[in-house]
Design goal:
The complex is a heterodimer of chains A (66) and B (252).
Chain A (H helix, E strand, L loop, with lengths): L1 E4 L2 E4 L6 H7 L7 E5 L2 E3 L14 E6 L5
Chain B lengths: L8 H5 L10 H4 L6 E5 L3 H13 L3 E5 L24 H12 L4 E5 L8 H5 L4 E4 L4 H14 L3 E7 L2 E7 L6 H5 L9 H4 L3 H20 L8 E6 L4 E6 L16
Parallel strand pairs in B: 1-2, 1-4, 2-3, 4-5
Antiparallel strand pairs in B: 5-6, 6-7, 7-8
Helix pairs in contact in B: 3-9
The chains are: A mainly beta (66), B alpha/beta (252).
Chain lengths: 66, 252
């Protein structure tokens, strides 16, 4: 599947959901915000939100320290 | 005996008035502006240093912690003899060296739901420099209640981010959901000192832009810095109709 992830084009095989994509990058589901085509995906829906060919994804890690 | 001349307010703002879009009457307001800094660590100290140098008149410093030796690697107002002092006192001492006329209020408190309204009552703008999720959520709710601009900031590892909230739509919860239990402390992840400072400098920049009414604010937009690759991004954040904090459909 061809996706734009954080502004960069990527071809990623064997991902169907946003949750799969986070797992692919080894990103914790608890500490990130995910936007798909400009819409924020609620944490409880990350696992069941399907990706579509050509989607633009932003994965934003919460940076906590002060 | 201190023989150094006292710099006038006029000197502090001399280079501001020739900036494009800056009006003299807005510059004059800097001296009357109160900024609260919640969490006086690496981010808060960097922000405070620049705000005081630029002529912001009053700073409220809020932090319950004492200076530890490892803080000196990135908390740039601190000096070795300050280890053991309250951070708010140590930072205030250095800020008065920078500007003997600045008003500083030191509060040795941990911000929480019970004290937030009183602590921030006199602030026009609030900066977040805390290292815990819980007080950030308190600040986010306060931003909704008060209508005051709050600039959130974080830095760990090689990464820094700043995100402004003003009245919600979007707010911090729109973006990240609950952050109360998120642990992202530089004690565990490590941190590159200057990355922390960058977050504070961007916060200071946003405060000055806000008061001077120039430029495009980071309210509703996330500034992200990745020091590892040396790249920066700004992402417009949409609001969420199901946000439990700021959505009109979900009143607090």
């Amino acid at each position: 599947m061809t996706l734009t992830v954080n502004g960069e084009p990527k071809v990623i095989a064997a991902v169907t959901t946003v949750g799969n994509l986070l797992d692919h990058f080894g990103v914790s589901h608890q500490t990130v915000a995910v936007m798909v085509d400009g819409v924020i995906i609620a944490r409880e829906h990350v696992g069941n939100t399907l990706l579509r060919e050509g989607a633009s994804i932003e994965i934003i890690r919460f940076v906590g320290g002060g | 005996m201190d023989c150094s001349p006292v710099i006038s307010d006029k000197e502090r703002v001399r280079r501001l008035v020739s900036l494009p879009g800056v009006k003299p009457e807005r510059v004059a307001r800097l001296r009357d502006t109160t900024v609260a800094i919640v969490g006086v660590g690496g981010i808060g100290q960097a922000a405070a240093q620049h705000l005081v140098a630029q002529g912001v008149g009053r700073i409220i410093l809020i932090d319950p912690d004492r200076v530890e030796a490892h803080n000196l690697s990135r908390q740039i107002l601190l000096t070795p003899p300050m280890v053991g002092q309250f951070k708010v006192d140590a930072a205030a001492e250095r800020l008065w060296e920078l500007s003997p006329t600045v008003q500083i209020e030191q509060r040795r408190d941990q911000l929480d739901e019970a004290n937030v309204d009183a602590l921030l009552q006199e602030a026009a703008i609030v900066l977040d420099g805390v290292d815990l999720g819980q007080p950030r959520e308190v600040l986010n709710r306060y931003a909704m209640r008060s209508g005051k601009p709050v600039f959130f900031a974080g830095a760990t590892g090689y990464e820094a981010q700043v995100f402004g909230v003003h009245g919600g739509q979007p707010c911090l919860t729109c973006l990240f959901g609950s952050v109360a239990d998120v642990e992202d402390d530089c004690a565990a992840t490590g941190v590159l000192g200057p990355v922390v400072g960058m977050a504070g400098l961007v916060q200071a920049q946003e405060v000055l832009k806000w008061v001077l009414q120039v430029g495009q604010s980071l309210v509703g937009r996330l500034w992200q810095w990745d020091g590892f690759s040396g790249s920066t991004r700004i992402i417009a954040i949409p609001s969420r109709t199901d946000c439990p904090v700021c959505s009109p459909a979900h009143p607090q």
